[in-house]
Design goal:
Blueprint: H1 2-24, H2 31-55, H3 59-88
């Protein structure tokens, strides 16, 4: 049990460093497509959280799974809303007249 916890912590720290390095090297003009891609990936995370929630047996596992699904869904929806607002900024103003 203790080794699994350290392995999970190691994977979390490694993914945080890799994510920071990838995001910091992306040019500003590519942030919108990157955000769309990350929203897609987060949709997969929500599916994984739902599967984990389906296999949860104890009330604590169910609570953690529910929170994971809730936070993942909120993050994905928020990402799509922000992407939509950013894409609206690139539309021409000819449509308004």
């Amino acid at each position: 049990m203790m080794i699994e916890g350290f392995t999970a912590l190691y994977i979390f720290m490694l993914s945080a460093v890799a994510g920071y390095e990838v995001i910091s090297r992306v040019p500003v003009i590519l942030h919108t497509p990157l955000m769309s891609g990350s929203n897609f990936i987060h949709g997969i995370v929500v599916v994984g959280a739902m599967i984990a929630l389906g296999h949860a047996q104890t009330p604590m596992e169910q609570l953690i799974g529910f929170i994971a699904v809730l936070l993942g869904a909120g993050n994905a929806v928020g990402g799509y809303v922000v992407t939509e607002r950013m894409l609206d900024m690139f539309k021409s103003s000819k449509d308004e007249g």
